[in-house]
Design brief:
Layout (H helix, E strand, L loop, with lengths): L1 H23 L1 E5 L1 H9 L4 E5 L4 H7 L6 E6 L3 H12 L3 E4 L6 H12 L4 E6 L13 H8 L3 E9 L2 E3 L7 E3 L4 E7 L10 H16 L2
Parallel strand pairs: 1-9, 2-5, 2-6, 3-4, 3-5
Antiparallel strand pairs: 6-9, 7-8
Helix pairs in contact: 1-4, 5-6
Length: 209
């Protein structure tokens, strides 16, 4: 009961804070055509990002017209995030590389059978190490011919949560930059190291804007 109350309290608090913060923020999108062209193609999409940028990317896809799913674990902090993401109309696939991974794979396969689906995953989640991609979701995406897109985001002003990944939370009146890109390699050659390099390269590009 105490745990459930804490989850409820923190999720409501986070939703209220982010509601007012995002009202004041300005967005700049780099590579949006990459995303839109991929959505128009008759193939599903795996959207790869780091856990620290979950709030930025999730908010960008709030009330998305796409058939959009987010993979999120069953850990304590994920229970808080799951309520936030659900309030933003993001469909959830629950589980992680440490708990319920078989169920995640099964749900991903079902989702990828729909060519209009977009599945977002924090490739270094749920417990790190940070900014190092894992292979599991990439293998499923390649098997079902999904397009792989990397996304990175940053805010001009921010707080960082005291968690393993130091999650970013934008401050009021900040500018949020978000960048989409494709791997340059063929789909068959895209592996965890390629995704790690691509997302980190995107972060460097954003920092130089």
């Amino acid at each position: 009961m105490k745990k459930n109350f804490r989850i409820y309290f923190y999720s409501v608090f986070l939703k209220l804070v982010l509601f007012f913060v995002f009202l004041t923020c300005r967005w700049r999108v780099v590579g949006k055509k990459i995303l839109l062209d991929a959505v128009d193609a008759p193939r599903p999409i795996l959207l790869c990002l780091w856990h620290e940028q979950l709030v930025f990317v999730s908010r960008f896809f709030k009330n998305s017209p796409f058939n959009f799913y987010g993979i999120i674990s069953t850990h304590f902090d994920a229970e808080i995030y799951s309520r936030l993401l659900s309030s933003w109309k993001i469909k959830l696939i629950r589980g992680s590389s440490t708990r319920g991974w078989a169920n995640v794979i099964k749900q991903m396969i079902n989702v990828f059978k729909n060519s209009s689906s977009v599945v977002a995953i924090t490739n270094d989640g749920p417990t790190g190490p940070p900014k190092i991609a894992k292979e599991g979701s990439l293998s499923v995406a390649k098997k079902y011919n999904a397009q792989i897109i990397a996304v990175a985001a940053k805010s001009s002003k921010y707080w960082r949560i005291n968690s393993w990944d130091k999650t970013f939370i934008p401050k009021p009146f900040s500018t949020i930059d978000i960048l989409f890109s494709f791997p340059e390699d063929n789909l068959e050659e895209v592996n965890s190291q390629a995704v790690t390099d691509l997302i980190n390269s995107n972060i460097k590009r954003l920092n130089n804007l």
